[in-house]
């Protein structure tokens, strides 16, 4: 888990660099800005409660999609669109979360949850209760469910991300939290623009026949 603790300075600098607004075209008949089209695509996907927490905290709504960091929204949209073309439906179950939403999600959550209070001991020997900060609160994480959410489908989703690093997303918690997808430091070649239409994709191999690539 140590290698996941990105320095706060890096996160702040990276967020400032990555979130430079995309300028809208002066031609209203032209295509929408990349960031806008990415958010529109994410909002077009099925969205639902994962049922992994005690109650539905509604962290998959438009308001939550809107607050994703722009580069992550771009990469996530490109990745999920490519996966969906090959393997079918993907559902978003959580996006950006406020601190209150994070606390809500952690109530009854069976898997890892950064907002769950825990006790730490200070250098002076004092014990204090602290809460972590989720990548969802930074706007650089989504929870997604491929198809029916079977283990095979999740393994294919994770494999697809690892085989196609050009999309700049990954699933750092693996089987500990199958749905959790984050922004990784992307290849600079792809960091400021949408995925090229000609980007070659590497499909999952040795997957269950029920999630084999769809015929094009």
Please tell me about this protein's structure.
The protein has 216 residues and is an alpha+beta fold. The protein has a domain at 32-103 and 135-205: Muramoyl-pentapeptide Carboxypeptidase, domain 2. The protein is 31% helix and 12% strand. It is built from six helices and six strands. Helix 2 (34-44) packs across helix 4 (70-87). The termini are far apart. The model is unreliable at 16-33, 186-198 and 208-212 (pLDDT under 50).
CATH domain topology of the domain at 32-103 and 135-205: Muramoyl-pentapeptide Carboxypeptidase, domain 2
CATH architecture of the domain at 32-103 and 135-205: 2-Layer Sandwich
Helical residue percent band: 25-40%
**How many strand elements?**
6
What is the number of helices?
Answer: 6
């Amino acid at each position: 888990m140590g290698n996941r603790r990105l320095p706060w300075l890096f996160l702040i600098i990276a967020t400032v660099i990555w979130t430079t607004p995309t300028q809208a075209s002066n031609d209203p008949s032209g295509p929408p800005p990349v960031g806008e089209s990415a958010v529109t695509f994410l909002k077009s996907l099925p969205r639902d409660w994962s049922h992994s927490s005690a109650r539905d905290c509604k962290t998959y709504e438009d308001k939550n999609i809107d607050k994703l960091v722009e580069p992550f929204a771009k990469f996530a949209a490109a990745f999920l669109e490519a996966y969906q073309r090959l393997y079918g439906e993907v559902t978003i179950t959580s996006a950006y979360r406020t601190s209150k939403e994070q606390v809500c999600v952690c109530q009854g959550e069976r898997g890892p949850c950064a907002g769950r209070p825990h006790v730490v001991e200070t250098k002076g020997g004092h014990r204090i209760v602290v809460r972590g900060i989720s990548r969802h609160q930074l706007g650089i994480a989504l929870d997604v469910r491929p198809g029916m959410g079977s283990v095979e489908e999740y393994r294919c989703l994770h494999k697809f991300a690892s085989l196609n690093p050009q999309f700049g997303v990954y699933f750092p918690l693996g089987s500990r939290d199958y749905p959790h997808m984050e922004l990784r430091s992307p290849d600079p070649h792809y960091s400021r623009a949408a995925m090229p239409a000609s980007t070659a994709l590497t499909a999952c191999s040795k997957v269950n026949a029920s999630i084999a690539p769809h015929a094009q």
